Amino acid sequence: MPDTPKPSDAAKPRTRPKAASAPKPEPAPVAESRPARGKKAAEGIGERVADTAKRVGKSLRASSQTWAEGNAEIGLKMIDQAEQNVQQAFAAMRAAAKAKDISEVMKIHADFVRDQGERSMAQARQIGELIVQVGRDSVTPLRPGGAK
Predict the structure, then answer these.
(1) Residue 17 belongs to a domain
(2) Which range of residues forms the domain containing residue 54?
(3) pTM above 0.70?
(4) Domain total for the chain?
(5) N or C of the chain: less Cβ packing under 10 Å?
(6) Whole-number CA gyration radius for the chain
(7) pLDDT digits over 33-63, tens only?
(8) Alpha carbon distance 130, 136 (integer Å)
C-alpha cells in the first residue's frame, strides 16, 4: 500500500526540522590554575610589601641619623653658650673685685645682668632655630622622595 497521508497527519502544521545546533566553543585552555595564579598574585604583593618595608626602613635610618647628628650639634652649641656665660660671669667678678667703690660694683653688676639677659635671649633664639632645623632635616627622609 502506498503511503497515503493519514487524516491525523494533515491536521498537524508542518515544521521545519531543527537545524543542528552549532557546537559551543570550548573555553580556552587556562595556562595556570586558579591556585597558581593566586600564588603568583600573593608573591607579587609580598614583593611590593617587602620593597615598601625596605624603603621605610631606609628612611627611618636616615631620619634617625639626621636626628642624632642634629642633637649632638644642639648639645655642643649649648655647651659653648654655657662656657661663654661662665667666662662673662668671671669677667664681671674680676671687674667687681677691682672696683674702687660700691657704686662701681653696682654698675658692673647692672651691666652684667643686662648683657646676660640679652645674651640669654640670643642664645635661646639660636637653640630654637637649631631645633627647628634639626626637626625639618629629620623628617625629610620620611617624606615621599626624601630618602633615596
Answers:
(1) no
(2) 37-142
(3) no
(4) 1
(5) N
(6) 46
(7) 666 666 676 677 777 777 778 888 888 888 8
(8) 10
